[in-house]
Design goal:
It contains 22 helices and eight strands. With 602 residues, the protein is an alpha/beta fold.
């Protein structure tokens, strides 16, 4: 276990419930915007029903708010408490009390910003947590191989940050085993195993993913060994150069001392600089050599147990037959102590124990881990972008299994969550739902709705930096829906159009391909298609403005879902510490928040 160090303070359950209460007050009025489906935008007259402001005004206000946020330095922005005191929670100013329509876009934007996770002050800084977990220990970096050498930049960013945290938690508890739920292609599992020496079980419901992960891990190990061999070769070469340099330095020093005795020159008494006795090395190269040699001295036991506390000779770092014996080594036959030979055998065995085992199993809140993992021991449970109910079920398994000492869960696909109160009239035998989890929201019988949960998946940060929204494709789909309703009398259709927009050359082509896929007779509307396009084209800005409002509101829905999970953990008696941590850059990885909890140590 790491040196004793208190973990960062977090808000207690009562404080979190108070923030939930304020958030619910805002969402009771705003949720109708998120629950309106873009497909029905024109058929249901969504803009007229929900917004009492011209679309031009909405777009102008949102553009101004974005520009002001970018222009104002982060340190100059007022804290959430100051914004709250300025009256942004005066909701009648945001929505009309009678019609419930949106009246003030400015107040809407401020309220949405206020109730985002970052502004509520409920997140624990990532670096602060890492420092607390490590205590006074030196950071363990593992093998010097970067993940972007064998995965895309987004996945590399996610795996690198999350594996660093998981490794720190494992060290904090002295744990070697990790269970990766929803492991998918096995990137995180492989990286934890190869870089940090952890024994990882990756469990995924897809047998295809499991077989793919096995094959990918085999190739990754091969790649890793090559990189590791090259890295060791570089260091060994540097070690030999340093040894030669020291030998040269000794010869030069001996010559200088001899000359001193003969000439009694005061200048010859000064120590020669490194650049003087190693003329073939630049200052930067020498500095690099020194840094790498220093790094060898402080490397961890996971890095092949190379510890220099007992002053092993540099030659002991090399493979037994790596170099030819020389007279200068004073060991013509390179005699090695039995202890050093045994150390190398142990090192070889330790690298083989770093195992990643992909398994196929469908995980629920009631899954019995002992039936899946035969050698289950004290472990951590993790999940990187676990879809739908798997994220809340990960937390439930963590709280119910004594062997699981910590959890780190980053969820995604909120639209796939099951909601207990979404359809109260529908009989269902399901007992454990994806949402809500905590007592307070259960008592409120709170329901978001699928469209609102879908909106929570929108990426505000990406849109803010110019990612934009696919307005034209959404416009095509909304106009198509009006055609289907008017000409075919269909208001609800079980079949989906799918990704036809990217394969279409024009709106006319889009409608024809869509009708064909839906099994509808095109001849009924052949002459009317472009009339519908011309009718709604001037109103495309309404759709754009409305979708931008949904994007602004998206972080509030995500806040609700994540606070629900955090409150659930705070309600458990045996959990010592729990928090929300922003692990990733939201532009690179929009689902960037991790729910983390640690049990009391016995």
């Amino acid at each position: 276990m790491a040196a004793s160090c208190s973990l960062p303070g977090t808000q207690d359950l009562s404080a979190l419930r108070a923030k939930l209460q304020g958030l619910l007050r805002f969402l009771r009025e705003a949720l109708s915007i998120c629950n309106a489906h873009t497909v029905d935008f024109y058929t249901e007259s969504v803009w007229e029903q929900l917004i009492d402001v011209p679309p031009e005004t909405v777009l102008a206000v949102l553009k101004k708010a974005t520009e002001e946020a970018e222009a104002r330095p982060a340190e100059a922005r007022p804290p959430p408490e100051a914004e709250g005191a300025s009256g942004i929670t005066d909701f009648p100013k945001i929505f009309c009390e009678t019609s419930q329509k949106l009246l003030s876009v400015e107040a809407f934007v401020l309220a949405a910003k206020y109730y985002s996770l970052q502004n509520l002050g409920v997140c624990t800084p990532f670096e602060q947590l890492l420092v607390a977990l490590r205590g006074n220990q030196t950071q363990k970096t593992g093998e010097n191989v970067k993940p972007d050498e064998f995965m895309n930049l987004k996945k590399s960013h996610e795996v690198q940050a999350m594996s660093e945290l998981i490794s720190s938690v494992a060290d904090y508890y002295g744990i070697k085993q990790v269970i990766d739920l929803g492991s998918g292609k096995g990137y995180l599992s492989s990286f934890l195993s190869l870089k940090y020496g952890l024994k990882v079980y990756g469990i995924d419901s897809s047998n295809t993913n499991t077989h793919g992960a096995q094959e990918r891990n085999r190739k990754l190990k091969k790649h890793w060994k090559i990189c590791h061999t090259q890295s060791k070769s570089d260091v060994n070469g540097l070690a030999l150069k340093m040894a030669k340099g020291k030998k040269m330095q000794g010869e030069i020093q001996y010559k200088a001392n001899t000359e001193e005795e003969c000439n009694n020159s005061p200048t010859s008494q000064e120590m020669m600089s490194t650049s003087e006795f190693l003329p073939d090395f630049s200052v930067s190269v020498i500095s690099n050599i020194r840094k790498q040699m220093e790094n060898l001295h402080v490397c961890s036991h996971r890095e092949e147990n190379l510890c220099f506390a007992n002053a092993f000779s540099l030659i002991d770092l090399l493979p037994i037959n790596a170099i030819e014996p020389t007279t200068s080594s004073r060991m013509p036959k390179r005699k090695m102590s039995e202890a050093n030979k045994e150390r190398r055998k142990t090192t070889s065995k330790s690298t083989e124990s770093n195992i990643y085992s992909p398994l196929t199993s469908f995980i629920t809140a009631d899954s019995e881990l002992h039936d899946i993992i035969k050698d289950l021991e004290d472990c951590l449970m993790v999940g990187l972008h676990t879809c739908g109910d798997l994220a809340p079920n990960t937390l439930r398994i963590f709280t119910s299994k004594p062997e699981i000492k910590g959890v780190c869960s980053v969820g995604c696909c909120y639209h796939l969550l099951s909601e207990e109160f979404e359809d109260p009239h529908k009989e269902c035998a399901q007992e454990k739902w994806g949402f809500p989890m905590c007592h307070y929201l259960k008592e409120e019988r709170w329901c978001c709705g699928r469209n609102a949960r879908m909106s929570a998946c929108l990426a505000l940060e990406r849109v803010a930096v110019g990612g934009g929204l696919p307005t034209e494709s959404l416009f095509y789909r909304a106009v198509l829906q009006d055609i289907i309703k008017d000409c075919y009398g269909i208001t609800k259709c079980d079949r989906h159009v799918g990704k036809i927009y990217s394969k279409s050359s024009s709106f006319l082509d889009y409608v024809r391909k869509s009708l064909k896929k839906l099994g509808l007779d095109e001849s009924k509307v052949k002459k009317l298609i472009m009339d519908y396009y011309e009718k709604y084209k001037p109103r495309m800005n309404e759709l754009e403005a409305f979708n931008m409002l949904k994007v602004v509101l998206a972080p509030c829905i995500e806040t609700l879902i994540l606070l629900d999970r955090l409150c659930y953990l705070k309600e458990q008696e045996d959990i010592a510490w729990s928090a929300l941590v922003k692990l990733f850059d939201p532009v690179k990885s929009p689902r960037c928040y991790a729910v983390i909890a640690l049990k009391r140590q016995q």
